[in-house]
Amino acid sequence: MGYKGIICPVCGSNLVEEIENGRLKCASCGTVIENENTFSDTNAIMSYLDGSQFETAENYCRDALSRNGESHPILNWLLFLAKNKIHFVNDPKTNERKPVFYSERVFKRDCVFDDENYNLAIQGKYRSKYQHFGELIEAIRMELCEKISEEADTDIFISFKSTEEVTDSEGKIRSVETFDQKKGWEIYNYFTSKGYKVFFSPVSIGKGNVLGQMYEPKIFAALASCRAMILVGTKKSYITDGWVRDEWTRYLYFMKNCKNKKSSRLNKANDSLFYVFDKQPPADLPSQIAEIEGVDCSSAYYLDDLYKAIKARIGNVNNGIERISIEKGERIKKEKVDIESIKTIALGNGAIAKKQTKIAGNLEVKEFGGNKVDYFDADTQKILDGAFTSLEEGNFNFARHEFDDVLSTADNATALYGKILLTIEAKNEEEFAKNAEKFPKSEISLYHKLMSCASKAEAEKATNLFVSACKQCCADVETREAVMFFNAVVEYNIPQRTDAIKTLKEAIPLLIKAHDSNLQEAINAFLSTIAPNKVDLYIKECVNIVKCAIKESSFSVAEIYNNKILELDENNHDAMACRIYIQTHSRDFEELKNKINTVKIDDIEYIVTHSSVKNADYDLGFFAYAYLGRIEENKEIGKSIQSLQTLLKYDFTARKDILVMLSELVLEKAQYLTVEEFEKTTDFILANYDSAAVDKFINYSLMVADVSLKKGWWNIAKKHYRKVIDIDNSNLQALYGALFADIEIGDDSIVNAVAKFADKDGTAIKDLENLLKFSLNTGAKVEDNLQFNNLINKFSGDILTALRTGAVAPDIADNAYLNVIRYIPQSNKVLMREKLLAISSVLLPLKKFELANKYYNQILLEKNDDFDALWGLVLCDAECRNNEELENTDYDFSETKNYIRAYRAATRENQNKLNEIYKKWSESKEKRKFKPLTDEIMKKVGVSCERDIIKSPKLLSTIPEFSQLMQVGNEYIISKYRFIETLQKQYNDLEIEIQKKEQEVKEIEKQLHREKTKRKDL
Question: Smallest Cα–Cα separation from 577: which of 534, 533, 626, 535?
Fold first, then answer.
């Protein structure tokens, strides 16, 4: 069973039955369609679309939607096509369905994907197909929006069937050129020779140069601009072929439906569609074609007949050159649009409202002369040839005479061209271009006179001469002359006009770089060629000029044209940004960065809040990084940070990264900031942390507090340590820092703050209590220097250092020390004993025996046989600081109770040490018993130590105290002094012997001297 009468509601092709389950499958797009209750509605609507009855199709769609539900996908797709006047045609080259357009409406919207009905259509089961066709429509729409203004206007559109498939003698199917295409070439060549602009696809599109779906932009542009259509149709099948049928039906639609749309390019003259047939029209022609005027191409004069018919409808071709009157009036300011600017806290995601511009006026095009070609007789041509020969040879007077002679009878473009060369005595075009600056402005009328009577070829030749002259003058920075040639050329609608505009546009950067005094004259000349209604283009070119001027330090010029932009569009982002560069005289970003703090932050905020979200996002990152750069370079840090905070109140893409960099820089550059700047900035950074980022908040607060502690900013340090403690009351680093902030110590030593620990009810000791309390339970993750034992060692050690160095009085140190060690748990007896012994070992050298006694007895409360404590008590009892002093004391420590207890508690090794100490003490005591006699002996001998007695001439035996010492002394003293006496006698005997020998030597020397004298006398 066939279903050729049913139309695919997706692409519009006929459906055929699929074998399985009786479902329908589109022969073109392949869509498989289940049983649909709306086949009658969709068939009717597709028929209307195929017949270009878009209004009827749209009304039918809306009625069907009311009956079947407003969200029906297929009906919404058909409504989308109807209201945008689109239907699909089969492409014979690819056998695919392609969209064609019957209205400009779709090209004036922002995007196909924004259409409400399209979005409802893609919600159904045909989503992928509709999306495919939607993307195809959007691709063609975008291409046409970009290219339609570039396509040249067309006078005549030739529609024809180009190829057909035939079977050759070998049974193979080949594609051959149709008879209609051959006739199309005849028509194209004929009307082109008449000066008409003709759209003929083999020429206008080419073969294989454009993708299938991209034919549509060129075809639509040509259909929109053409003033007449010639349909070549020698067979009915050719006329009803998909693309051909689409072309003439669209033209008829434009002709009938766009009559009153004067501003539309689709407006066509009545009866401007012409039909060409061969001998007689085919039978059963479509009614629309049967009603129009036809021309039989079998007639030898059909082209002339066709020409007369078209000329009667649309007039003669304008072969003359159009002179353009450029309106110099004031441009209409762009209407202010409420732009959704970047938001604080969060960026807005809404679309930016499109700018609406009032059109001031269009370029007024007027016909300028008939552009006639005069008939020259042989004599006139001979005169002109001779004149140009003389010109080439440098015989300027003769050439001038000849040109004047020709011009005396009638205007002649060739003679006027020669006169232009003669104004500066140029032999040819090359010489004229090289010396163009010598051309007198008063002679510019020669060019205008030439243009009024020249053929197109002559006009283009003269214009080429002036364009070359303009280009050379620009290169030589002869600005006034360049503008003179430019203004002359752009008054005419001729192809070289575009070259002239391009030449001056490209020269403007060179003139700006040269800081030419006539620069504004050139810029204004270029800008004057932009139509008043082309406000966006005018602004775009001004922006380019401003940026170039800024780059070349021409800030006064930049300001002039930047103000022009702002007069037309006060919220133009480029102009607002350029104004910053102009104000600071910065040529690029690096220079602006160095001067960023000369820019008012209010001006930057104005740009941000009056720009689109995209531009504002870029600007915020741009300026924020500039401020960061100044901070990194240690320049104007405080001001840069303040400005940066203002920008960071907005949400933008780079905000997170910049906050991270700022947070690091603030800590790194704290030394360059005041306490107020540091506090304000760090508070701002912490306020921007996510409430869920607790660990990051704590870490940064600790870093801020640590830096503040080192700087001596106690209040800031306290505040941030307390913030961390409020969040985590067991954070040892914060507890540790808070303690030092409270006692106002910037390093980790409390030597100079021991007195604050003496008061057990004071702030310092309370902080210490909190710190020690939580450090008892620290795990492996906590740094060693914050564990309990290390903290006790650290603080007790600092107190002992203060005590040892005299930085604090012993009684204060005593109280402070007790306040620290009292937190040692009772179970930790080893640490407590270590700390009690430590302070005792410091108190003994300071002769604070009473305090030391207290700590030793405290040890003995836990262990009554502690040797170190007992021996310490022995030293305290003897009031000796160490064992050396004990060895020389008169105090008999060996009889004390503590000595006996210590000896009993001592190990064998320690007992030996005690025996040695006692032995030395005994010997020392014995020495002190005979000391008065020995001191008197040395006094009488006249020496300060016993060894010097040996050299004394006064013998010990002569001293009464020596005899007394020998009677009462002990064995050691007697033997010692007997030995000294012996050595003294031997030393004295030796001295006497030495004296004798010295006397003998003297006698011998005297005898030798006498003998020597006697010999001299002899």
Answer: 626
Could you give the C-alpha distances from 849 to 102, 841, 896, in angstroms and in order? 114, 10, 16
Cβ neighbour number for residue 133 with a 10 Å cutoff: 24
Sign of the Cα torsion 901, 902, 907, 911 reads negative
Confidence (pLDDT) at 253: 83
Collapse the DSSP code of 16 into the 3-class scheme (helix H, G, I; strand E, B; otherwise coil) and give the result: strand
Cα radius of gyration rounded to whole Å, the chain: 57
SS3 316: coil
φ, ψ (nearest 5 deg) of residue 274: -120, 140
Would the pLDDT of 873 be above 90? yes
3 state DSSP class of 959: coil
Whole-angstrom distance, CA of residue 258 vs CA of residue 422: 53
Give the closest residue to 156 by CA, choosing from 207, 225, 103, 202.
Answer: 225
Q: What pLDDT shows up at residue 743?
A: 87
Q: How many CB atoms lie within 10 A of CB 723?
A: 18
Average pLDDT over residues 323-346: 60
- Spell out where 705-801 has E strands: none
Closest CA to 13 of 202, 242, 189: 242
Give the predicted TM-score (pTM) of the model: 0.51
**Cα angle: 3, vertex 8, 11; to 5 degrees:** 150
Neighbours of 547 (CB within 10 A): 17
Nearest Cα neighbor of 699 from 679, 678, 681, 685 is 685
User: What tens digit of pLDDT does each residue of 8-46 get?
Assistant: 777 767 666 554 565 677 777 777 766 565 677 787 888
Six-digit token string for 493: 């609608």
Tens of pLDDT along 257-305? Answer: 776 554 456 778 888 899 999 988 888 888 888 888 789 998 888 888 8
Nearest 5°: CA angle at 873, between 870 and 876? 160
pLDDT at position 843 over 90: yes
CB contact at 8 A, 163 and 244: no
Question: Residue 425: CA atoms inside 13 Å, Cβ hemisphere, count?
Answer: 6
Packed helices 675-687 and 714-727: angle between N→C axes, nearest 10 degrees: 20
Beta-carbon contacts of residue 461 (< 8 Å; ≥ 6 apart)? 417
Q: Is 77 helix (H, G, I), strand (E, B) or coil?
A: helix
> Would you give the DSSP letter of residue 650?
B
Check residue 21 and give its pLDDT.
60
Contact 422, 399 (CB under 8 A): yes
Strand 198-199 and strand 156-159: the pairing is parallel
Distances (CA, A) of 104 to 77, 83, 143, 216, 273: 19, 12, 14, 13, 20
pLDDT in tens, 509-549: 999 998 888 889 889 989 988 888 788 899 999 999 999 99
Mean pLDDT of 922-946: 77
The structure tokens 């930085």 sit at: 807
Q: How far apart are CA 872 and CA 912, in angstroms?
A: 17
Beta bridge partners of 26: 15
Chain-centroid distance, C-alpha 24: 55
What token pair was written down for 97? Answer: 């369905």
Give the integer Cα–Cα distance in Å for 524 and 517.
13
* Token code pair at residue 856: 């030793």
**E-only strand ranges, 886-1015:** none
Q: Is 789 exposed, middle or buried (0-12, 13-18, 19+ CB in 10 A)?
A: middle
- The answer to whether residues 687 and 652 touch, using CB atoms and an 8 Å cutoff, is no
Distance CA 157, CA 168 (A): 33
Strand blocks (E) in 632-760: none
End-to-end Cα separation, the chain, in angstroms: 178
Q: CA 837, CA 805: separation in Å to the nearest integer?
A: 18
Beta strands 32-33 and 24-26 are: antiparallel
The region that residue 402 occupies, defined by phi over 0 for left and psi between -120 and 50 for alpha, beta otherwise, is alpha
**493-506 mean pLDDT:** 88
